[in-house]
Design goal:
The protein is an all-alpha fold. The chain folds into two domains: about 1-80, no CATH class; about 80-130. About 75% of the residues lie in helices and about 0% in strands. It contains six helices and no strands. It has helices spanning about 5-35, 40-50, 55-65, 70-80, 85-105, 105-125. Helix 1 (about 5-35) runs antiparallel to helix 2 (about 40-50). It is globular and about 55 Å long. The protein starts with 6 loop residues before the first helix and ends in an 11-residue tail after the last helix. It comes from Sediminicurvatus halobius. InterPro entries: DUF454 (IPR007401). It is a multi-pass membrane protein. This is Inner membrane protein.
Amino acid sequence: MRARKNPSLRAALVRRLWLALALVFVGLGSAGAVLPLLPTTPFLLLAAYCASRSSPHLHAWLYSHPRFGPLLRDWRDHRAIRPRAKITALLLLAASWVVMWLTVPHETARLAATGVMAIVAVFLATRPTGPAPSDGD
């Protein structure tokens, strides 16, 4: 005889998993705000995604946060990345590529990573830098 699964218990566990992931990504994004080599925006985007599935309060807090909110709203509303964040990401990507090329012995791995990095660089470079200025700006 099989035990019946409780759907509300499963939903609660899934929600807690999403919340735990959101908090981990908030922590990583917060660390990225002060550590030069750790990105902020990707972790905050992941945190917002996870929070939207687990905690309306955390989700609202992220979007209203004075430091994190503008980055998240730019992405949500315009699919835009602020110029400073874009330049920082591209410079760190280039630095990572140089270090990888000098330290990874396998050419196949270097070429594969170069391809992925090139795709990421093109994606970043082609994102808008923000909303078009309005007449009042």
